[in-house]
Each structure stands twice: as C-alpha cells, then as structure tokens.
Amino acid sequence: MRTLMGYIAGLLFGLGLAISGMTDPARVLGFLDIAGNWDPTLMFVLGGAVITTFIGYRLVFKRLEPLWGDAFQLPTRQDLDAKLLGGAALFGIGWGLSGYCPGPAIASIGGLTPPLFAMLIAMVLGWFAARRLSVS
Amino acid sequence: MDWTASLQGLIGGILIGLSATWLMATLGRIAGISGIVGNLVTQRPKGDSAWRVTFVLGLISGPLLLMALGGDLGNVVGRPGAVVGEPAGGVAMMLLAGLLVGVGTGLGSGCTSGHGVCGLARLSPRSLAATGVFLGCAIFTVYIVRHVLGGGA
Questions:
Q1: How far is residue B84's CA from residue B60's CA, in Å, rounded to a whole number?
Q2: Where are the domains of chain A?
Q3: Complex ipTM
Q4: What is the signed CA dihedral for A119, A124, A130, A132, rounded to 10 degrees?
Q5: Which of A3, A7, A53, A83 best probes binding to B when mutated, by most B CB atoms within 10 angstroms?
Q6: Where, by residue number, does the polypeptide cross the bilayer (chain A) (predicted)?
Q7: pTM to 2 decimals?
Q8: Residue of A17, A103, A41, A99 whose CA lies nearest to B9
Q9: Angstroms from A135 CA to nearest CA on chain B
Q10: Cβ neighbours of A125 (radius 10 Å)
C-alpha cells in the first residue's frame, strides 16, 4: 500500500510539473531572467503549490500520524549554517545554468536527450559527493 | 502577458501541492525530490526504498501520460502540443550544471520542492533562507550568462 501511495504522489507531482510547463527549461529560465522578456509562469506554479500545501498540511496535521506510517517525519532544525546556505548557492548556480532543478530533470526522462542524460548522471554523482563531504 | 501559460502554471502548482499533501497524509514524508531520490540512490535505506522507487516512476509517468493523451496539455514555450522542452545547453554545460545541482541540493538538504514548496508551506526559517539564496543565485547566474556574457542559455 505504501508503494501505491508513493506512486500516486509521484504521478500527481509529475502531472503538475508537465501541465505547468516546468518540464521546459525555457519556461524556468524565462522566469529567472528578470532583465529580459520575463515569464511569470513559475511564480504561479510556486504560489499555487505553496498555498495548496500550506492548507493541505494544516488539515493533515490534525491527525496524530500518517495513514500508512509511524509518524510524520519533519525536519526540526531552525538554525542557519554555512552548509545549508552554501549548498543552496551552488544549487542556484546549477539551476540558473540549466533551467533544471531535480524534479523537472527527472520528470523529463520521457523526452530524454543527451544533455539531459548528462545532467542526470552528474546530479547523482553530485549527491554522492555531497554525502561524502557531509560524513567526513 | 500569456494568461493561458500562467493559468496552466497555477493548475500545475496546485497539483504539486496536492502531491505534497498526499505524501504527508499517507506516508508522513516531505515531498522533496532531491531528498527522496538522493537518499534512494546514495543509501538505499532498508524498508524505506520501495515507495521512493514508485514515487520516481510516478514522477516520470506524469509527463508520459500527458504525451499519450495528446492535445495541448503541456506548457512548453512556443511549442503547442509539446510536454517536455529542449535542454538549454550542450552536454558539457549540463554536466557542470548537474554536478552543482547534485552537490548543492545534497549539502543544502533540499531543492525547489523540499525547501521551496514544502518548507515554505511549513514556514521553516531554514527553507525560507535556502529558497532566497538559490533563487537569488539562479537569477544572478542567468543575468551573467544572458546579459553579461551574452550567449548560450
């Protein structure tokens, strides 16, 4: 049952990314290019997603636990550190270069191209590198 | 302004919010792509991997479903009927970008979905700071690439 719930969540997410146009790097870069012909689409995507999640979480957290899990697994840290902010900065540069963040990059596999394949391989290598950096 | 594109953005955003709500309601997890997939590939957590695999399959099958349905359900710039857009650069550029995205989301514990959607919805100060930093850096990068260097993406 947990695997089915995971699939439904992924499917909704993938549909959302595709319908909103986030599977098109040109849409994303058009939003990030505030000095050019600005494309507001991503603002509507993020706004719609945050507001829906804000309301949804409030309804969900009225329960004490998830339907198929032991407990809600939420980050508890509140402090800002160099790892968080430095990581976010590196991610931002990569996002600005490509127009792909992890979700759209993976969701776009149905239209796989050599550059996207290269991006996905490098992203996975980057995750391994970050893990190694974090442990040591 | 292209109102159709904006409306599709809003509808897609609401679907992403429903996905995040669904995952929290059923499995009690944050719908952060870099966390879900990154932990899956680097650690293969025992007893905690199957839902991650099916989540990824769902994520990939969403756009495939739209392609199969046909019509004009996607929102690719200037290409009605397309669902997935073309990459903005070649293999070398994407290798660099992918490495930065992987290392950055790994160290920063999240990406646009984990920090930008779920974290902001939880009013998390760490996610708010991370989102501000990666948005700012991305905007700055695009400015340099497009308006200072004036080429490529």
A1: 11
A2: 2-135
A3: 0.96
A4: -140
A5: A53
A6: 41-61, 82-100, 106-130
A7: 0.96
A8: A41
A9: 11
A10: 16
> How far is A30 from chain B, CA to nearest CA, in Å?
9
Q: Where are the domains of chain B?
A: 1-86, 87-153
**Per the CB < 8 Å rule, is A20 touching B9?**
yes
How would you write the pLDDT of chain B (153 residues) with one tens digit per residue?
A: 689 999 999 999 999 999 999 999 999 999 999 999 999 999 999 999 999 999 999 999 999 999 999 889 999 999 999 999 999 999 999 999 999 999 999 999 999 999 999 999 999 999 999 999 999 999 999 999 999 987 544
Phi then psi for residue A23, to 5 deg, are: -85, 10
Pick from A108, A95, A27, A37: which is nearest to B8 by CA? A27
CB A20 within 8 Å of CB A41: yes
Tokens describing residue B28: 């009690």
Percent helix / strand / coil, chain B, rounded to 5: 70, 0, 30
Q: What six digits make up the tokens of B116? A: 């930008």
The DSSP H or E segment spanning B41 is helix B33-43
- Measure CA of the first residue to CA of the last residue in chain B; give whole Å: 22
Q: What angle do helix axes B50-69 and A2-20 make, rounded to 10 degrees?
A: 40
CA distance B81 to B71: 6
